[in-house]
């Protein structure tokens, strides 16, 4: 039927037959100058974005041989009479579709391209009474979608769809293969092979386009790997499936004989598959290292502490009037480092620390080792009794001197006493006299006891009594007389009265 006959058909009413023209490709006609595919289609399509190589076509034109023809499926003109219907199908090669309604309207019945739905679709295609069964009844979810004049739709790869035309319509559309659905496109192609789909209903030069895509993306992988850059994870997954299918094709029986017309002459299939697999393995290592680095960064990154302000802002009002309602206030709390005792208090001219009405002696900074020892042992630094009067308020004496622990050894840390304190001098003198008397008595007893032992030892051994006494006492771990005298001399040096 010519265009003139088709035009007269649409002008006549009533019609004996319903015609539905859906395979009129206009890329090589004058009409193509007035029709432009969506920009995103031009960017994604392997035929127009640089994946398809024109080297073969130029060589063929020079040698006048049409070995491989560039697929022209991107621009179709669809002319459908009212009440026409196209049953459920998947566009050839699992290609995506752009669809623009110029006149009339269309009703789509859409089924998602899931693995379960594709199995049901393949079984439905094998039925002899396929035309009598509505596939939407066998699928769990079948969506109805209506298009009006001026609407455009993009159908994803592999989606099963049927189209009903309520009234005469004019539509422009097209098909395209792209990188985002390589695995699904190859699965649909394999399904078409199992269903023995006629060649005229399949995507032209489909396998040729896959070899060109393998060559194109292998070069991209090489460049990315040399720069230590990662490709997109989904693209890597799709390319891995493409490499698997190409290997499956070339290892199948009689592939080069039966599909020689679809293999580009400038491509060495075996070598390309090996190089592509090598580059994919390198890219996979980069992707794994990137994932590990991101996990490490997420674990090393300190988590921000979330503060709850509800308890802080409850009951806060903007104004003092009772009429105003409580308003929530966002507060930012910034914790400042606590001031040390040396920063928070002042010092007098003598170096003593003044805090309000109290005066404390400036004992100096404790060393780090001493601070660690005190922290481990849990003991606080001891203060001598003669320094306790500094803790009393100015002009007052210490009330309870009896509370001081007399059993503590207060001579571990040396400190100077106040020479002007007469009470203190008297107390120290009395304590010193008492301690001297007790020590003299103790020395006399030890001397008498040692003389009795020395006489007995002199009879049995030839050693001097002093040598025997010091050795025996040292073995028992007791202090000798020299050690006791040394302590007394130390006391006299500490307390200078």
Tell me about this structure:
By secondary structure, the protein is of the alpha+beta class. The chain contains 15 helices and twelve strands. The strands form three sheets. A five-stranded antiparallel beta sheet has the order 1-2-9-4-7, with no helix packed on it. A hairpin with a 5-residue loop joins strand 10 and strand 11.
Secondary structure tally: strands:
12
Please compute the radius of gyration using only Cα atoms: 51 Å
Uncertain residue ranges: 62-66, 305-345, 376-419, 460-475
Helix/strand order, N-terminal first: HEHHEEEEHEEEEHHHHHHHEEEHHHH
- Roughly how much helix do the residues carry, as a percent range? 40-55%
Mean pLDDT across all residues, rounded?
75
**CA distance, first residue to last residue:** 136 Å
With strands numbered from the N-terminus, the spatial order across the biggest sheet is: 1-2-9-4-7
Number of helices: 15
User: How is the main sheet built?
Assistant: 5 strands, antiparallel
How are the SSEs placed, and which strands pair?
Elements: H1 3-11, E1 20-25, H2 39-44, H3 55-63, E2 76-80, E3 84-89, E4 96-103, E5 106-111, H4 115-125, E6 143-147, E7 152-155, E8 160-165, E9 169-176, H5 182-194, H6 206-226, H7 233-251, H8 255-258, H9 269-300, H10 310-313, H11 341-344, E10 346-347, E11 353-355, E12 358-360, H12 368-377, H13 422-460, H14 465-476, H15 481-494
Antiparallel strand pairs: 1-2, 2-9, 3-8, 4-7, 4-9, 5-6, 5-8, 10-11, 11-12
How would you briefly describe this protein structure?
This protein is of the alpha+beta class and 497 residues long. The chain contains 15 helices and 12 strands. It has helices at 3-11, 39-44, 55-63, 115-125, 182-194, 206-226, 233-251, 255-258, 269-300, 310-313, 341-344, 368-377, 422-460, 465-476, 481-494; strands at residues 20-25, 76-80, 84-89, 96-103, 106-111, 143-147, 152-155, 160-165, 169-176, 346-347, 353-355, 358-360.
């Amino acid at each position: 039927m010519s265009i003139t006959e088709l035009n007269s058909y649409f002008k006549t009413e009533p019609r004996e037959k319903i015609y539905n023209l859906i395979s009129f490709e206009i890329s090589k006609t004058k009409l193509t100058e007035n029709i432009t595919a969506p920009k995103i289609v031009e960017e994604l399509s392997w035929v127009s974005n640089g994946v398809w190589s024109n080297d073969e076509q130029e060589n063929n034109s020079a040698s006048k041989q049409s070995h491989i023809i560039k697929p022209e499926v991107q621009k179709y003109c669809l002319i459908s009479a009212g009440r026409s219907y196209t049953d459920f199908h998947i566009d050839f090669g699992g290609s995506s579709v752009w669809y623009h309604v110029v006149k009339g309207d269309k009703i789509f019945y859409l089924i998602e391209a899931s693995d379960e739905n594709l199995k049901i679709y393949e079984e439905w295609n094998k039925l002899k009474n396929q035309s009598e069964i509505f596939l939407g009844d066998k699928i769990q979810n079948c969506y109805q979608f209506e298009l009006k004049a001026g609407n455009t739709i993009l159908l994803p790869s592999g989606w099963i769809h049927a189209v009903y035309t309520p009234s005469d319509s004019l539509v422009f559309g097209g098909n395209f293969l792209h990188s985002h659905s390589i695995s699904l496109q190859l699965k649909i192609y394999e399904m078409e092979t199992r269903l023995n789909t006629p060649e005229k209903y399949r995507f032209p030069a489909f396998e040729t386009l896959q070899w060109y895509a393998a060559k194109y993306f292998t070069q991209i992988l090489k460049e990315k790997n040399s720069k230590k850059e990662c490709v997109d994870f989904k693209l890597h997954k799709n390319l891995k499936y493409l490499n698997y299918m190409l290997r499956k094709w070339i290892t199948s029986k009689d592939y080069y004989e039966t599909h020689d017309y679809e293999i580009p002459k400038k491509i060495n299939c075996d070598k390309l598959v090996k190089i592509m697999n090598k580059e994919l393995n390198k890219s996979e290592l980069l992707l794994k290292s990137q994932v590990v680095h991101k996990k490490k960064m997420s674990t090393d990154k300190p988590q921000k502490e979330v503060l709850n302000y509800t308890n802080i802002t409850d009951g806060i009002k903007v104004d003092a009037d009772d009429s105003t309602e409580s308003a929530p206030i966002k507060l930012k709390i910034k914790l400042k480092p606590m001031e040390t005792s040396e920063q928070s208090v002042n010092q007098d001219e003598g170096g003593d620390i003044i805090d309000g009405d109290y005066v404390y002696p400036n004992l100096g900074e404790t060393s780090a080792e001493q601070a660690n020892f005190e922290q481990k042992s849990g003991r606080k630094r001891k203060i001598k009794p003669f320094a306790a009067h500094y803790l009393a308020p100015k002009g007052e004496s210490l009330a309870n001197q009896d509370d001081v622990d007399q059993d503590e050894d207060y001579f571990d840390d040396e400190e100077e006493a106040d020479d002007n304190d007469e009470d203190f001098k008297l107390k120290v003198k009395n304590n010193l006299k008492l301690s001297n008397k007790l020590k003299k008595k103790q020395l006399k007893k030890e001397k008498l006891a040692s003389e009795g032992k020395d006489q007995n030892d002199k009879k049995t051994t030839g050693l001097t009594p002093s040598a025997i006494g010091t050795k025996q006492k040292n073995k028992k771990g007791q202090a000798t007389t020299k050690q006791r005298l040394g302590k007394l001399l130390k006391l006299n040096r500490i307390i200078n009265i």
